Every structure is written in structure tokens, then in C-alpha cells.
Amino acid sequence: FGVMLRRPxxxxxxxxxxxxxxxxxxxxxxxxxFEKIQAADKEQWKSRTIYQLMxxxxxxxxxxxxxxxxxxxxxxxxxxxxxxNLDYIQGMGFDAIWISPAxxxxxxxxxxxxxxxxxxxxxxxGTEEDLKELIRECHKRNIYVMxxxxxxxxxxxxxDFEKINPFNNKEHYHDFCxxxxxxxxxxxxxxxxxxxxxxPDLKQENPYVEKYLLEWISKTVxxxxxxxxxxxxxxxxxxxxxxxxxEASKCFxxxxxxxxxxxxxxxxxxxxxxxxxxxxxxxIRQTWQGMNSFWGLHERLMQEEQIFGKKMDYMGxxxxxHDNERFLHVNYNIPRFKGAIAFIMLYxxxxxxxxxxxxxxxxxxxxxxxxxxxxxxxxxxELYQYVEKxxxxxxxxxxxxxxxxxxxxxxxxxxxxxxxxxxxxxxADNYQQTKTLEKVPYPDAVSYTHLT
Length: 452
Description:
The protein is of the alpha/beta class. Helices cover 34% and strands 15% of the residues. The protein is built from 16 helices and 15 strands. The strands form three sheets. Strands 9-8-7-6-3-2-11-10 form an eight-stranded parallel β-sheet, with helices on both faces. Strand 12 and strand 13 form a beta hairpin. It is globular.
């Protein structure tokens, strides 16, 4: 894809240079003071570019380069390992990270989604002080930290609830039933009251369970200084609880609603501040991975405009994650892969980039899409440097603050603008096209950059 830049028009209005400098210093002081007393809000998160990593798979404390032998168990990644390798993340331009759930898990819960003790951190990842040090070092670098959290279920203990702290009584859980695949479309009650993958389902309507969870998330954010959270399994919990959770957390909340229905996903933006944009996750993959016509993607984006509107600016935009086979597993096509990367960086939303994509990882479904990164941290790789280039471009033009204007689309070409920048995508291989774009809003266009 490529971009066209329009020469910016400089305003002659406003205050003098000296007065402007004083005004800017006052604003900067005010922002710094505000951030001291309150976690980042959605407007601040809108400007961020998130690097999603799995704590167990990113980096080891001992600098080992030995690969993981069994991806279904712990591989050795730690919070100290992340702290020691922040240069690797920041070198690409990322200014936010999303880390795995931090509470103690049942073995072998390397992923963090099998909580066993909400009062302790996962000892495989390190100590409380290790986690605090990671967050302190991130904040020194102006990197936000997003914690993955789970309030729907605990680890797979079947009915042996004594293994869970503090939810050690059957009264803390819904009666036994298991969610069926067709329940997600047809039976919301079962989605909220039955077990997902036979994981004991917490009963949020129980006063003790609700009170504990709300106090726990409030203390966790305050104790460690998290800037935001990704909330797991959101539709599996009734919406009234999420309103209370959002208030208790006092930080930015982005929910996982693993569903492509626009109205369904939209129904959880309000209970939480934002959501992962799963409705466009699938069309992005189909467009670049399978070379489907841009018509399908365009139609879905226009539908999102109608349903989500301004909310799109705060939704997580992504095409790879830990729950799906990697893009390159299906089609190892680097030019198209680059196009998908550029799209999530430059369209509406908060870009979320999955660790290992910068090294061309191509794992299949879980756990094969959760590879160890430490043997492959190559800052000279083609994709690492490409990601750096795209993020620099995103930040240089403050894309997140620029108005969006649709320009053109056909089967293999898609174009839109963000103020002075026109962005043109293609998903065709070795396909030369000549097009006359009549709606281009740049009569004074002065340069063209090919970024792939």
C-alpha cells in the first residue's frame, strides 16, 4: 500500500510564539498532574499502539535462548524478562503492552485463565515486586500497561471448590451446565449461567462474590498502577455487573466479546468502555489472507459506522491473537500480511499487534499460536523494521485524531484519507493497476510514499 501527503496549511491566527510556549507548558504541567492521580482514560488510550504478549512466552529472566519444548505447559517467561526487553518493544514504537492475567493459576495454567488464588500472583511469572518493577519501568518510558483479567470463571477444579481462594463454596458458583456452541446465538441465559469449557462459573449475583470481585479489581489497579484492562469472557457475565466493575476499576476497560454480530458487541460498550473489534477481525483476515474482494470489508466497515459510530475510535483493532491460528499459518504471504498490519495501524481504532508477528510466526490454533519469542528476537528482521516504519508514520501524522474520509474501493483496491494523508491498499499479488480517483480531496498533493 502507499500514502499520499498533502502540504499542511499553516494558520496565521492565534497568540504570539512566546505566549504559545507558556500556554503549552501550562497544558503539559496540567496533564502530568492529572496522570499522577488518575489512570489513563479512553482519550489517552486512543493514541496508543498496543503490543499484546503472553507473559510466559515473551522473555525469560535468565536470558536463555533455548526454545520451549512443550507449548501446553509453562515455558519460563517472566515479568523480569519483559522488563529486561522493553527496548525490543519500544524499538518498534509501541507505547502500550497487554500482559497475561497475573493471579496464581492451577497447573499448568501458563496462559493465566485458570485462577486458583486471587490473593496471590502467579509465582511462575515472578513476585509482586517484579510486577511493580515492570510497571514502573514501563511508565518511565511512557508505556501504558494493560492487564488481562477474568471475572467469569476459575480454573478447572470440576466440583472441588476448596482448591479456589476465596471462592471455596458451591454457593459461589452457578449450578452445573455446559455452554453449547449454538447457545451463543440462541440462549443468552445459558451463556451467562453455564460453564464455558467446563470451567466453574462464578455467580456474580451472589453478594459475597460480587463484593469480592469489585474490591479485588479496585485494589489490584491501585496497588500495581495498571493503566487499563482487557476483560475476558464478557458476554458470559450479566451486563449489570460490568457497569459496577467499570466503576470499581477506575481505568480503561476493553472487553472481549468473541462474536461478529454488531448489535451484540455494541450492547457491551456502555457496561464497559470499549470492546475488541471482533466484527471486523474476520473481514480483515478474509480480505488479505484469502484475497476476498474489498467489497466485503467495506460493507462491514460501513455497518460499523452506523452501529458503533464514534465508539470505533476506542475499540481494539486486530487480526491476530492468542485464541486463533496465526494469519501466516493459513497463507504465508508477507506482502498481504504487511497490508493487514498497515490497516490496523491506520484505520479507526486502537491497534493491537500480537507478539511474534514481527518475526513472521505462523503457529496453528492454541497452543501452537503461543510460541516462545526469546529465541527469535531479531530487531533486523524485515517485519520488525516494517512495523517500526508504520508506527512512526502513525505517530508522525497523529492518525487517531484525524478525520476519516472514504475515497474509493473495488475488488482489489481500497483508499481512504485521514486529513492530509491518503492511504491506498491492495490485496492483489503482482497486480499492476491504474486508477483515476475522482473523489480525492487533495488538489495540492505533493508527495507519495510506498510503505510496503
